[in-house]
Each structure stands twice: as structure tokens, then as C-alpha cells.
Specification:
- The chain is globular, with a radius of gyration of 23 Å.
- With about 425 residues, the protein is α/β, with parallel strands linked by helices.
- It starts with 7 loop residues before the first helix and ends with a strand.
Length: about 425
């Protein structure tokens, strides 16, 4: 009988054994991180040594690591091994200033591939499957992360990358694709193209499993994808700072994402007090890497809001589950798999003297797609010239597309059209239901 587990001894390890493994790996991680000047200074200031870590609770003695720390040490200031022993670099998308950069050794990549393969095996994928990866390849981790995981699994992989829906469907039909990695908004778009081509994916293809993630989505959207395409859609969580996809993944129960605790230590804190929240309450997810050689990160603040789901999972895996994300503790927007900060938009808008200082960013679901609408008031310097207005509008959209990697809708309004907030201005309205 074929096991339902990729690594049964790890996935079903008792809590006591799992925590002992975490403690052993945490000590090694601290020793490895001390090879960087950044962590060497932090450990010295706080009296942290590997042998001084007596329990997992001692992790609380170490300050948090933030995205700003990664940017301040750009590009390779957090490398814990010589650069010539690193074999790949990934960086984040859609951020202002220096991006966040993550280095990998070959050992890191092998561990990451195993992590993703474990996720895929958990939801029923095997070496007999044909796996089509519709994520972008390159600095974005979704493409290569799933590519190497699928290859370790032994599946036939189709690195189709993003876009060109008719070509995607041709590959699905011709290659007998059974599984896709896809962002939720594109999954619903693909269903529309299937319909336009008069193809019923539920009966005319071999599709059965979708791995979805990289952007917020509701349970309703997941069920819509499953109904339209005749598949089971499993939620995936990852971030480039923690390798990429595969940090946590749903099992067949579809009731929370198992966070692989042999690879990370997960904490959930109050983003205001920075103290742990009670079990089951929502807070900010904080992660510590446990098997990273090139660039370990300790107590990294993700700013993603979630909770630990209490109780055991019927699937038999003992690694804790986190709930679907409820939002973020900072002002970052995740749209179509791209990280966007309002300050990026403001920087471009404020470059036009014809625009005023009041603007509003609205994220909403239109049809089956998530879209961004930017409303901005004109300043008193703008003259009543329709042709000039059209030219300026096209120029603004082009600059926004270049900066954000998506194309927003833009609406220019007369001065005084937007409400004036008392206190802190409300710049973003996210009307999606997660």
C-alpha cells in the first residue's frame, strides 16, 4: 500500500520529538547566523550563544528581524557563507528602494525542493502526474520553487510560465496536464477562456489538482475555482525570505495550512505589543529558518495576520496548522501575486504638478478578477484641456505599470471630490472578501 506521507517519520513526529528537533536545529541556526556581522552584533548585545539556548522559549530573548534589516544589508550583507558557495539569488518584487534579497546554497535548494515535493505529495500528486507551472520564472520564487519541487517528486513538468491563456489550454489538452500551480485570480480567468473556446475543463481535460497562492483569496473564490474547473484547489503559503512556496500547505482536509516545523519555527505575536497571543487568536506570523545555510533568518516579521488552529488534524500530520490569512499588519497590498506599497503609487502621482495630494486606492473584485482603481484629484494648476488630460492619464498609467508590474485603472477627479479624513488619511480600501 502506498503511503499518504512523503516523509512519514517527520510529518507524524510527536510534538515532543518535533520540538526537540527544532531546538537542536535552532542552536545550529544561531551558530550559522553568527557568521554575519548583523547577527553577531545582535547576539553579543543580548548575550545569545548556541549553548545558551536551553529551550524554544529562549527564542524570545532574540530581537526580531525585519524587512528593513534585509534592505539595509543589501545585497549580500546577510550571507552566512562565502559568496562563492552560494548558487542562486532571489529578490522580492514590488518594493521601493532596495529589494529584499535571499541567497541559497545548493544544500538550501535541495532542502527547499524537498519541502515543496512534500506539499505536492500531501495533496495527492505523484510521479505519474503532469504538472503545469503557470507562475513567472526568474527572481519571483513561485516559478522555480514549484519547478524543482515537482521534479523531485518525479512528475513530468511543464514550465509554461505566466500568461497566454490559449497556449496554456493547448498544453493542458495536448500534454494531459493533471495539476496546475496558479494564482487564484488567473484560475478564474482561465475558466473564462475555457468557456470562450467551448471546452469544458471538467470533462474535456485531465485536470484534478490546483495549487493556488501568492495572493489573498476567499474560501468562496476557492470553491468557485473548484466548481468551474472540476478540481480540488489547495492553498499554498510561501515568501521569498523563507525560500518561497512550500512554507505551509493545505492537506486534503482543506482546514488550515500545515506549517512545516522541521524547516521553520512559527510564532504568532500581537503586532502592537510584540508579545505572543493566546492559542487560536489572530496575530502576526513570525518565522525562524531552521535549515538555511546561506542566509538564516531569525524571528522574521512577516506582517501576515493569521492564527494557529487548535487541535489535531484528521490527516494525521502533527505539524501545526495556520489559518487563512486575514490581512497584514503593515500597508502592503498583495495583488495578482505582486507586493505593492502605497508609497510607490504616491511617489509617481506626486511627480505630476497637475495632481493634488488627495488620492484613494481601491482593490476590488470585478467579475472574477481582482483589480486596482486609483482615484486622484487634480490640482488647481490643471487647465481645462481634455487632450492634455488624456495624455497625462496615459503617461501616469504607463509609469504605474512599470513600477507596480500590473496595470491599474486610473480616474482623475476634480479637486474636492474625495473625502477628507480627520486624522490619518485613508489611502487604501480593500473590498475583496478573504
Amino acid at each position: 500500500m502506498t503511503s499518504i506521507y512523503w516523509q512519514e517519520d517527520i510529518e507524524t513526529m510527536s510534538r515532543g520529538d518535533l520540538e526537540r528537533l527544532q531546538l537542536e536545529r535552532l542552536r545550529k541556526t544561531i551558530a550559522q547566523a553568527a557568521n554575519t556581522q548583523f547577527y553577531k552584533n545582535i547576539f553579543a548585545e543580548n548575550g545569545i550563544t548556541p549553548e545558551g539556548i536551553g529551550s524554544l522559549d529562549d527564542l524570545n530573548r532574540i530581537p526580531f528581524t525585519t524587512k528593513d534589516d534585509l534592505r539595509a544589508n543589501y545585497p549580500f550583507g546577510l550571507a552566512a557563507i562565502p559568496l562563492q558557495k552560494c548558487v542562486r539569488v532571489h529578490s522580492s518584487s514590488g518594493t521601493t528602494g532596495n529589494p529584499t534579497v535571499v541567497l541559497h546554497s545548493q544544500k538550501d535548494l535541495d532542502a527547499w525542493s524537498n519541502q515543496v515535493a512534500r506539499c505536492m505529495y500531501m495533496v495527492g500528486l505523484r510521479d505519474t502526474d503532469v504538472f503545469q507551472n503557470t507562475s513567472g520564472y526568474g527572481m519571483f520564487t513561485g516559478g522555480l520553487g514549484f519547478q524543482y519541487g515537482a521534479e523531485m517528486l518525479g512528475a513530468l513538468t511543464v514550465p509554461s510560465a505566466s500568461g497566454n491563456s490559449k497556449r496554456q489550454i493547448k498544453f493542458i489538452m495536448d500534454f494531459g496536464t493533471t495539476a496546475l500551480h496558479i494564482i487564484p485570480s488567473y484560475a478564474t480567468r482561465l475558466a473564462e477562456v475555457f468557456r470562450e473556446m467551448n471546452i469544458d475543463p471538467r470533462t474535456d481535460t485531465k485536470l484534478r489538482v490546483f495549487c493556488i497562492g501568492a495572493e489573498p483569496h476567499s474560501e468562496e473564490q476557492r470553491r468557485r475555482i473548484e466548481a468551474l474547473l472540476g478540481v480540488k484547489a489547495y492553498n499554498c503559503f510561501g515568501m521569498s525570505e523563507m525560500n518561497g512556496p512550500g512554507v505551509a500547505f493545505e492537506c486534503p482536509e482543506q482546514n488550515g495550512l500545515h506549517i512545516w516545523e522541521d524547516y521553520v519555527i512559527a510564532e504568532i505575536i500581537d503586532p502592537e505589543t510584540l508579545l505572543p497571543v493566546p492559542e487560536g487568536e489572530i496575530g502576526e506570523l513570525v518565522l525562524t529558518t531552521l535549515q538555511r545555510e546561506a542566509m538564516p533568518l531569525i524571528r522574521y516579521r512577516t506582517h501576515d495576520l493569521t492564527r494557529f488552529i487548535p487541535g489535531e488534524c484528521p490527516c494525521g500530520r502533527t505539524h501545526r496548522r495556520i489559518d487563512r490569512f486575514k490581512g497584514r499588519s503593515d500597508d502592503m497590498i498583495i495583488l495578482k501575486g505582486v507586493n505593492i506599497f502605497p508609497i510607490q503609487i504616491e511617489k509617481i502621482l506626486m511627480g505630476f504638478k497637475e495632481l493634488g495630494g488627495n488620492y484613494l486606492i481601491t482593490i476590488e473584485t470585478v467579475g472574477n478578477n481582482d483589480e486596482m482603481l486609483i482615484e486622484v484629484e487634480l490640482s488647481e494648476l490643471f487647465t481645462d484641456d481634455y487632450g492634455a488630460l488624456e495624455r497625462m492619464s496615459r503617461n501616469i498609467v504607463r509609469l504605474l505599470k512599470d513600477e507596480l508590474l500590473i496595470t491599474p485603472r486610473l480616474k482623475l477627479l476634480s479637486k474636492g471630490s474625495l473625502p477628507v479624513a480627520e486624522g490619518k488619511a485613508v489611502r487604501v480600501k480593500d473590498l475583496r472578501k478573504f
